[in-house]
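Forum > Structural Biology > Help requests

Title: Can anyone predict the 3D structure of Glycosyltransferase?

Hi all, first post here. I have the sequence for Glycosyltransferase but no way to get a structure on my laptop. I'd be grateful if someone could post the structure tokens.
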Amino acid sequence: MRRITSSGGTRTGKHRHHRAVSGAPTGISGGVASIRRFFIALLLFLGVSFVSSIFYRAGWFTSPFDPMSWRQPQDLGGLIPTDDDSFDFISLDNEDIRLERVLKAASMRDKTVVLTTLNAAWARPGSVIDLFMESLRTGEETIFLLNHLVIVSLDMKAYKRCMAIHTHCFALTTEGVDFSGEKSFMSKGYLRMMWRRIDFLRVVLEKGYSFIFSDADIMWFRNPFPYFYPDADFQMACDHFTGDSSDLRNTANGGFGYVRSNNRTIEFYKFWYISRLNYPGFHDQDVLNYIKYDVLIADIGIDMRFLSTTYFGGICEPSRDFEKVCTMHANCCIGMRSKIHDLKVILEEWRYYLSLPPSLKRASVFSWRVPQNCSLDMLNQSRPPSNEIDWR
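Reply #1:
Sure, ran it for you. Structure tokens for Glycosyltransferase below:
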């Protein structure tokens, strides 16, 4: 190989190689340069590692091999949970932004969502929320509704459990109140939780979202949308159904309902919420059964309907037709253990029905084997001060 020298002549590759090997000054300077580059690279590596460790400990990012890496903010509901079970967390943005994000992610094309609320008492593994989710997975044409379900968590334990089992979770906070289930039924804390829920549903309507609200102690067996009244603004399940969907004598149950977002329903929820002041010591369901007769309801112009227990039954008044039933509610039931036991019986009955061939489904006469642990006779007894009571 020939190379042009600085003096304009040429030098062969052999001569160049000989000088590089035999020339001591060139070898020493090259070694020093290599060592210098090594130490500079080492210092840069250590510096970057130190800064990265600070960011990692601050929670800015996680390992790329961590399945939770780069989790989107909406999955966390805008929150970073702490290690304790209180709602002492860091809010990355305000509640309104968090809610809008979750609703948008969960909504159907027509801006409809399915909502349920959850506290620690119902969030334990094997408890009410697991049965609720299982019913949606095994019902007829109900599994798609899980994509549109938002679980509204009322305390930190419930929020953590929701994050472990579901996609769309929202932490609803109420300053100075612990909704983890330690409050007795009809206590001040319980009533505040119920009314907080009504005010929250009003906010959902104001954001333009219609919703099905369902208590978690309701088993879903069929897609309910074909069984709703197409033009009604507000439709709700009943403890007792008279046979007429417009009859105000129907005993409304606040645990299940379908509400369209419009000016009428927004005004109705405002009226419902403020009416708590006229009925101190009563929860939302009792107040609803009072105000449904109010002349202001007619002034608002809301079309209110009550859902037949044929389709939307409960322990208070079970559905008698397995071919039509959409939901079964563990209402008229006292005690968490009793409620869970009877919910499991209801789910087992439904599974047995599904296992039958079509001919037997049509030919057989079915009836629910509930109440069992949920005894209707207990409703005539005095209300014991237990934090597990649920009169819905």
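The longest strand covers residues 251-259. The chain has a mean pLDDT of 80.
Shout if anything looks off.
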